[in-house]
């Protein structure tokens, strides 16, 4: 590549007077003077007819010394070594020149020669050279004094010419030294100005953030351009993985064409690819002349000439060991060349930009994580809420409507469980992409969470606009989703809420859209439903009941009813099932089908379940203490109770506090929970069984039971669901299924209880097929403990079954 700039302002060691450039030039001057002196000396001797071998030897020696001085900076890299070498050369030349001209005539001419050499030592930083030459000068003069203590000469025209020559040499040498000092002073002044500029820029860039980044970068480019005297200064940012360079910021001199916004590539035949590829190697690219570009940069050379660029410097910007951009300086045709360009200075400017870019990129990353979903790349809930709030304010001012669509994938959990979360993530990413593609430029899609998405349609003038958008959203499922080279056909359900009729706040609109979405799911997959007054009334009802339910237990509004479980053969009571009821002070008796789901959703089910367990155990023990026959008490466990790690401890405490023996407590779990493919279910049932309890599977037949799974469960009984019992005498298929369940239980050594027995025909069928127990309205509906004592037990004691 073309080397980086090597100007007279290159950085030197602290305290140095000579720069690398001026030092090299000084060596050339000294070499030139020695060679010219040799030539003049040669012609002078020839003119005088002096052909002595000593004179010829001096000429040869001066030429060789000039060559050696010229070669010093090329063979010795150390400045100290260069100065020492030059000092030795001068120390050798002084006695040789003076002693070879040792006569009265020339001694009067060459005596200033040592002064010239000592003048040269002024610009070096080596004090020893000065002292050495000073001592040598005095020594030589003493030698002359001793050898020629007293002499007289005739000053003729020839000697005047020699004197003029030495004057000219002295004047030239003085001019060179003066120029070196002046240049050094100017350099010091420029360096001081640059340091002040760097200090100011560094202080300014401390407060860089994503809001003022453009302003501060433009300020740096402008000051850099004015300081270096270039015509165009610009910042290029790399965009991986293709290393595309985008020129994002620039400063231009008067009448200079802009590069901002243009793009170039690091590879291929695209414009300026050679320079960019060099930058990617972390090399400063210095092009003093476009004509000097290598052959492989022919395309770039033509492009630069077309732009009338004469010289260029490109500095890599590196952050975290990666090239993230470049800082460029251009000089155009007809303008001054690159001046005062220092490699280290340029790198300082690039480092300031690198730190600022890294800081802003980190801020942008944090902002992205805060407001965008990393999986789909679309706005997250926070950003969507903010934009929706802004849109609501605008709709309020313009008196227009606004629509929110709450969208959810149908069956996404099954896809996740079946194919894995990686495929699920890919699927969500593609859904986000399709939703974004189908929206208008003012619409907004966001991810609410999981497989739920939000879509905002602002500034609606008529309902058809929202309907059209809903159709577009549903259309994304007309084509299959390609995930891991597998086509998946999906559907989604959506709910629509409209401002202002369905809400005037962000929270209300999204809540009502969510409500409508669940209504759409209930009516069938792949549908979209509008929020309605009926839906909102149901939600209000649910919220009211949930609030009341939080206080129901403390107020004593919850109570237990008990339904007998009867032996099918003897019709005696074998046990009871405790059933929870809610006696609301205003609404009366509320069905469990209404408030149990509310308790599960609100997290109250665990506390209520523990109360049910303790109350049922206490009631059973009370009946035993009153002399009634000891029987089982069945208590239903919710899913949350069964999953609780404290369940075993809670049951032990209940039995201990109430004094009920464990064989008189039966815990019922639903078939759906029991049949889950989980080792936890098996371990939990085994642990409960070790306590001495009875365990039963409730609602048997409503889920998909596996024979292998059923035989591994530590249960004592299955309870046939009422929907099959109600089919006895009505649906032959139900009678077959009931018979199969009874036979299956018998083969597995399990007892069978039939729920929902309401007729004598059902009883007779169950007795005929060997059912162990029956439970239902045929004998008794669920009643209070007092009713059990007053009616059920009284009937049995009276012999009325």
Q: Could you please describe the fold and organization of this structure?
A:
The protein is an alpha/beta fold and 801 residues long. It has 28 helices and 22 strands. The protein has an 8-stranded mixed β-barrel, surrounded by 4 helices. Strands 3-2-1-6-5-4 form a 6-stranded antiparallel sheet, sandwiched between helices. Strands 8-9-7-12-13 form a 5-stranded mixed sheet, with helices on both faces. A hairpin with a 2-residue loop joins strand 10 and strand 11. Helix 1 runs antiparallel to helix 2. The termini are far apart. Residues 6-13 and 266-272 have low confidence and may be disordered.
List keywords for this structure.
alpha/beta, six-stranded antiparallel sheet, Beta-Lactamase, 801 residues
């Amino acid at each position: 590549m073309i080397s980086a700039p090597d100007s007279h302002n290159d950085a030197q060691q602290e305290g140095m007077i000579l720069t690398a450039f001026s030092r090299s030039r000084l060596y050339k001057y000294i070499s030139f003077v020695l060679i010219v002196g040799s030539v003049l000396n040669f012609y002078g001797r020839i003119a005088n007819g002096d052909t002595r071998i000593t004179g010829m030897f001096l000429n040869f020696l001066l030429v060789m010394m000039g060559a050696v001085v010229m070669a010093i900076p090329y063979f010795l890299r150390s400045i100290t070594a260069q100065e020492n070498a030059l000092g030795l050369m001068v120390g050798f030349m002084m006695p040789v020149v003076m002693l070879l001209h040792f006569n009265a005539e020339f001694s009067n001419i060459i005596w200033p020669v040592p002064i010239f050499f000592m003048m040269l030592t002024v610009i070096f930083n080596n004090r020893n050279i000065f002292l050495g030459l000073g001592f040598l000068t005095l020594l030589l003069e003493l030698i002359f004094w001793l050898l020629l203590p007293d002499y007289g000469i005739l000053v003729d025209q020839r000697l005047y010419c020699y004197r003029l020559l030495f004057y000219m040499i002295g004047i030239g040498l003085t001019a060179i030294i003066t120029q070196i000092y002046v240049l050094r002073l100017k350099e010091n002044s420029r360096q001081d100005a640059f340091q002040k500029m760097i200090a100011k820029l560094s202080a300014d860039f401390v407060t860089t953030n994503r809001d003022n980044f453009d302003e501060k970068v433009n300020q740096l480019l402008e000051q850099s351009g004015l300081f270096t005297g270039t015509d165009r200064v610009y910042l290029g940012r790399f965009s991986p993985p293709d290393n595309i360079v985008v020129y994002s910021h620039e400063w231009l001199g008067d009448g200079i064409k802009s590069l901002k916004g243009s793009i170039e590539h690091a590879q291929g035949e695209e414009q300026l690819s050679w320079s960019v590829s060099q930058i990617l190697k972390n090399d400063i690219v210095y092009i003093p002349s476009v004509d000097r570009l290598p052959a492989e940069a022919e395309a770039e050379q033509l492009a630069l000439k077309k732009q009338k660029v004469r010289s260029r410097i490109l500095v890599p910007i590196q952050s975290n060991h990666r090239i993230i951009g470049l800082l460029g300086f251009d000089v155009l045709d007809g303008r001054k060349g690159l001046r005062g360009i220092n490699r280290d200075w340029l790198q300082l400017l690039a480092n300031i930009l690198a730190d600022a870019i890294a800081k802003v990129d980190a801020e942008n990353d944090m902002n992205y994580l805060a407001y965008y979903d990393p999986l789909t790349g679309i706005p997250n809930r926070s950003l969507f809420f903010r934009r929706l709030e802004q849109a609501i304010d605008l709709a309020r001012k313009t008196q227009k409507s606004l629509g929110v669509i709450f969208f959810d994938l149908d069956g996404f959990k099954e896809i996740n469980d079946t194919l894995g979360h990686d495929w699920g993530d890919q699927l969500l990413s593609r859904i986000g992409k399709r939703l974004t593609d189908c929206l208008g430029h003012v619409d907004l899609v966001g991810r609410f969470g999981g497989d739920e998405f939000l879509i905002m349609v602002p500034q609606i003038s008529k309902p058809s606009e929202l309907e059209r958008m809903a159709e577009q959203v549903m259309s994304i499922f007309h084509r299959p989703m390609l995930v891991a080279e597998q086509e998946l056909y999906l559907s989604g359900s959506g709910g629509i809420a409209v401002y202002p009729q369905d809400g005037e706040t962000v929270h209300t609109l999204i809540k009502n859209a969510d409500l409508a979405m669940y209504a759409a799911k209930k009516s069938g997959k792949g549908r979209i439903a509008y929020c309605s007054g009926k839906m909102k009334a149901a939600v209000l009802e649910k919220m009211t009941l949930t609030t009341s339910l939080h206080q129901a237990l403390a107020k004593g509004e919850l109570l237990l009813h008990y339904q007998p479980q009867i032996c099918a053969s003897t019709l005696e009571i074998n046990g009871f099932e405790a059933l929870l009821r809610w006696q609301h002070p205003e609404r009366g008796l509320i069905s469990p089908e209404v408030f149990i789901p509310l308790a599960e959703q609100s997290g109250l089910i665990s506390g209520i379940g523990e109360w049910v367990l303790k109350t049922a155990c206490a009631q059973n023990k009370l009946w035993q203490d009153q002399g009634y026959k000891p029987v089982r008490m069945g208590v239903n466990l919710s899913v949350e109770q069964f999953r609780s790690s404290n369940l075993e401890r809670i049951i032990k405490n209940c039995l201990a506090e109430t004094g009920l023996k464990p064989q008189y407590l039966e815990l019922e779990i639903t078939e759906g929970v029991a049949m889950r493919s989980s080792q936890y279910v098996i371990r939990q049932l085994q642990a409960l069984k070790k306590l001495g309890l009875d365990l039963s599977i409730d609602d048997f037949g409503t889920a998909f039971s596996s024979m292998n799974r059923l035989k591994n469960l530590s249960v004592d009984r299955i309870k046939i669901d009422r929907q099959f019992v109600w089919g006895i005498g009505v649906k032959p298929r139900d009678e077959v299924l009931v018979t199969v369940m009874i036979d299956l239980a018998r083969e597995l050594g399990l007892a069978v209880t039939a729920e929902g027995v309401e007729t004598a025909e059902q009883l007779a069928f169950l007795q005929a097929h060997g059912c162990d127990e029956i439970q239902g309205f045929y004998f008794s509906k669920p009643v209070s403990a007092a009713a059990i004592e007053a009616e059920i037990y009284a009937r049995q004691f009276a012999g009325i079954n």
